[in-house]
């Protein structure tokens, strides 16, 4: 499958479209059966619908904004998911939705016979008002609906239907239904925190800071690779290390640092990493046999500063997995589609906003004090007066509004589904200056 434009026409008859749309909408997935059929007939009778001269204002469309300040960990989420489950059950019972042909990239301004299939699919999931019609024109209605769909699936909301949007569109309805069922069970088993807390959703690679039943901050995250997974856990954030040292775990020494040193003997020096023996003495890198596992018995410590793998801050919480949250000098990773690149720890975008919120009840540590300490490159611990509850969870489907259902890839294959959208995507190559950081999967 490619993103390249290919305008080969894919013919679709009026009768086939009416039959397909009626099979999906007639079950009442998002409206009654009689209304669905009459709406389809009315749309197909409107010759200008989908053209460039109609006056329909897409801002007045019935679709709701995907953004919400409602937290995922909320009693309302479970209720909304159960309502959405009923809608998806009706869609699945009606035969689901048809595949959208993926032979050409679809975007605003394109005329293509695949667009009616796209419209039909977007109507089925509630992203497009059925009154927008069945035109072959990819118009502003379709553009707005595609952006809504992309936002619900964790894709860049650019309105262009390319490889990964096609993949998300063509995941069968029964797979999405199974995701909802599975995640309702997960959420039902969770003891929801009524107060102030932080929630990391691993499949979404995202973070919510919640207070008084509202999301006060959201952060993009980078979480564990498929073979180095971020664990599910509940804990409390107890303190921060500003300008921290980074100590490489034995697993990273074995899997990453040893191979890197075999390729480039200057790697440790360039990254300001010092090797220590058990008695605290410094071990020169050239005295180690890098063709063996000898290095694993030593301590590898990276000094605070620009090169440090955790950059400005490490966020600590007790857990048996030796994981933590932290800043990163490699900010470009947050713009990647696939953000499953760590060894289990969680990197946080705009982390200073989060740590100011976390430390606000700790005397002497307002934003000015935190920024001043970081700027001075001074190693400093900040112990919280009031530890903040933390939850690492695994939700591939959720809804804080029954009409806005969010889906994400089952990246760690815990849903039992074999329909994945992005797991074969790999981040683009890092800039040369960032390659040293990319090589360390902290």
SSE map:
Elements: H1 14-25, H2 33-44, H3 75-93, H4 115-124, H5 140-152, H6 163-169, H7 173-188, E1 197-201, E2 206-211, E3 214-224, E4 233-242, E5 246-247, H8 250-263, H9 267-270, E6 273-276, E7 299-302, E8 313-316, E9 325-326, E10 340-342, E11 346-348, H10 351-358, H11 367-375, E12 380-393, E13 397-401, E14 404-407, H12 435-438
Parallel strand pairs: 1-12, 3-10, 9-11
Antiparallel strand pairs: 1-2, 2-3, 3-11, 4-8, 4-12, 5-7, 6-7, 8-9, 13-14
Helix pairs in contact: 1-2, 1-4, 3-7
Tally of alpha and pi helices? 12
Provide the β-strand percentage band: 15-25%
Order of helices and strands: HHHHHHHEEEEEHHEEEEEEHHEEEH
Give the C-alpha Rg.
25 Å
The backbone outline, from C-alpha atoms, is: globular
End-to-end separation: 33 Å
Placed side by side, the strands forming the largest sheet appear as 1-2-3-11-9-8-4-12
- Structural category: alpha+beta
Q: Flag low-confidence runs.
A: 1-64, 423-442
Query: Level of helix content?
Result: 25-40%
Please summarize the sheet with the most strands. Answer: 8 strands, mixed, barrel
Oligomer description: single chain
Number of strands: 14
Mean pLDDT: 81
